[in-house]
Amino acid sequence: MNMFLQQLGAVLYQCCKNKDFKHGLPLHAAVIKIGFESDLYLGNHLINMYAKCGVLSDAQHLFDSMPNRNLISWSAIISGYVQAEKPLKAMEIFSQMPLQPNEYIYASVITACASLSALVQGKQVHAHSLKSGYKYISFVSNSLLSMYMKCGLFDDAFSIFSNISAPNSVAYNAMITGFAENLQPEKGLELFKLMNQKGLQPDRFSFVAVLGISCNKEDLEAGRSLHCQTIKLGLDSSAFVGNVLMTIYSKCGSIGSVESAFWSIKEKDVISWNTFIVACSHFGDHAKALMVYREMENACDIHPDDFTLSGVLTACAELASIRHGRQIHTHLIRSKPNLDIGVCNALINMYAKCGAIELALRLFHSMPNRNLVSYNTMIMGLGNHGRGQTALEIFKQMKTWGFSPDSITFIGVLTACSHAGLVDAGLIYFDSMKETYGISPQLEHLSCLVDMLGRAGRLEVAERYIEMFPFGNDLIIWGSLLSSCRLHKNVVVGERVAKRLLELQPTVSSPYILLSNLYASNGRWNDVAEARKMLKGSGVKKEPGHSMIEIEGGTVKFTIGDFSHKRIEEVKEILGTLNFQAEEFNLQVSSSF
Predict the structure, then answer these.
(1) Phi and psi angles of residue 548, each rounded to the nearest 5 degrees, phi first
(2) Separation between Cα atoms, residue 408 and residue 374, nearest integer Å
(3) How many other C-beta atoms are found inside a 10 Å radius of the C-beta of residue 439?
(4) What is the C-alpha to C-alpha distance for residues 574 and 299, in angstroms, rounded to an integer?
(5) Entry pTM
(6) In this predicted model, what pLDDT tens digit does every residue of 341-379 receive, in sequence order?
(7) Among 231, 192, 234, 233, CA closest to 209
(8) Which of 14, 124, 414, 589 has CA 20 to 30 A from 500's CA?
């Protein structure tokens, strides 16, 4: 019988190891059927199996119904709660434990303290473990390292690390991760180098910890070097490492590097696909983001999550592709009756940017719950469509519901005032940012204000506001004001603004072009010729304008003076036909008068 129990225990252990709840459940039924539900050995295996499979209610029920418990029983239930990210429950059970804890229980409880940043309780458990003689047990000391690092006590962590006679890779990983999370990357990299010098081979956890440090342009070469090491060790093919590599290249590399890292991953998870989709949009290749999403849909073992949908809807918005956006929305209506708030926000943004502002507004009002992003997205969308009054009503509604506006909210409000001609209201909102809400206006807010004042012809006021701010020497803001000078044919302010622009960046063609157009609108042809002459003499070349259109799901770019398109003859023929029809129409209109 003992042999049979051992074999049954071994099978339950395999179910636990593989998190195979499907086969573990009938084994539990078999244990009950043969009358061994009270056996301590099998009971511990069952608690462990349920806990590892995440079925903690059944694990707790078994634990509570056990006539006898040993250290393994307590360890199984405590570690189960810790692994299920329920540290408070783990500590509660630990406090009820009548037995002297072993090293496994200490490690689990210290991890629970780290998750809760419960430093006082963590120090008490640390002292208890020292008294019990577990000072030199590796996984106890490694848990202590993580806890002190997460609580920001680097000296305490380093003291423990220094007292370990032969730190293993887990100890190094805990220290490196701690330094990375607490913004001390240099120390993390130093430890990683020391780890290599000591002859310890870094594992996937080591690389994920140290790669997290290499997330800016200055550290890109270090990131590439680490990437090479992962390739040599065959770690780049795991999603755990590959996803971090993709994130690094997304932030400071190129889409080619992201794609290379993506295709190196053998078993891609949903995070792999999400990271690639977001990276494509980050680098401006929104069409590719849609293509990657279609490939993901065809991958039978991967299902898009809310992050996927938000990412691909953002790509649709940037492409102004309402066709693809509607397809995704239709699919969501059929498959997900309760949409995530982030997905709803992405849908509102997509419809607004695709020109379907009524659909965006209808979706906004149908949301059962909204957050600040929902209001910001709707205000910005309405503002861009010239619906200033409606945008301001949404802004007031937002405050009524207890949401405090942030910096992005005011960009939307000022845009709404600008496009709707609500100049006085816009000035009041701009001035209230600092006075009422404690938000200092930034470059984006000033840009919106200058655009609003410029549209209204209040050019001197706009000029004064620009001079008030330390970031006023911005080319786009001064360029916007110069465009407004041309619109209102104000040569006096226009000449001052053009002079300022040329002082800031003499190698840009736009000031010359805008000044020339300003003179032309006032009939000052000699000055037009002079401005053109200045442009020619500067050696600056004007970048040709271009237009983009969507054809059968793809985008096509047409640039002024570029006749390299493979169907250019057809394009010219159609343009000729349209031109002829326009002339015919003009003749008919003229003859009718």
Answers:
(1) -125, 135
(2) 12
(3) 17
(4) 42
(5) 0.73
(6) 999 999 999 999 999 999 999 999 999 999 999 999 999
(7) 192
(8) 414
